[in-house]
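I would like you to help me understand the sequence and structure tokens below and explain how sequence relates to structure.
___
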Amino acid sequence: MSWLAQTIRRERRALERARRRFVGEPTEKHLHDVRTTGRRFRSLLEDAADLLPHPRLLRRVRRAAAATDAARDATIIRQLLETSTDPSEVDVARPLIEELVEQERSATRIARRRLRRTSFLP
């Protein structure tokens, strides 16, 4: 049981570090780090719920994931469009790419604002 408690503390600190990096500098890489660390931590909390329940912390982790969904979705869609657009169709795709860039910026600002008010430490 102490191994599990130590693992939860370690993952909790890792998610808090990732959150602070993203809030301090909201880059695509830092967003990805928050999401992957959060996903790993959420899985741990769900798997260990019968042994060592942390319902409030699990809700916080899920809300953080939901706060970052729109930013990550916009990033992925923009990247897909940029890499799959035929060179002869760049002019046609440009307005859509610009709209996706703006959606990505807006969603990232919202995610940053929401994560700024969140802490994963006790």
In short: The longest helix spans residues 55-84.
